[in-house]
Model the fold of this input.
Amino acid sequence: MIELENITKVYRMGKVEVPALRGVSLSIREGDLVAIIGASGSGKSTLMNIIGCLDKPTSGRYILEGVDVGQLNDNQLARLRNKKVGFVFQDYNLLPRATALSNVELPLVYGGGRNKRKQAMEALERVGLGRRANHKPTELSGGEQQRVAIARALVNNPQIILADEPTGNLDSVATAEIVSIFTQLNRDGITLVVITHEVDIAGQAQRTIHMLDGRITRGDCEEKVI
Done:
């Protein structure tokens, strides 16, 4: 499903070049649950952004379901993101004045989908929040807000969900709820790539990838049977 070949990413700050990725090669199969672990500055978020077509590599080749992403223009990339990929972030990124249901509907508005309200409600029910659909983020707990964010990521029926520290702001109870949801989504056939420091999430992954200084370190990508 995902093939990265010798990916590099260099940020230019004036005359200074800052390498974020240094020749990363990685394959992720359909149905994988992959955890990416690394210290701040290791390149894991940059890698996530490239996988999600939010950023372009400086060099290397990225193939997503047989499509060479590097050959796509901005409009084509936007359509690919909207149809194939759902995103979950640490800070939820919800509109504070909109209800949970309206927040989940947003990708459908951008994508021009039909039956938006029904699809959004189904996504909320999938994460156990159907009864909280008309509540605004300020009326929800942190764990509930993250579940709204997961529902928003699910509403377009993506094949891939990318999550960047999805439990970083949550207590242990809410973390366990999110881990349970991710595990079930993976059982349902969704490919998940999760940046995390949480051992609970990493423990559920079939593969754990450690990053250091823009590289995947030796001995990683070991597959576990769970």
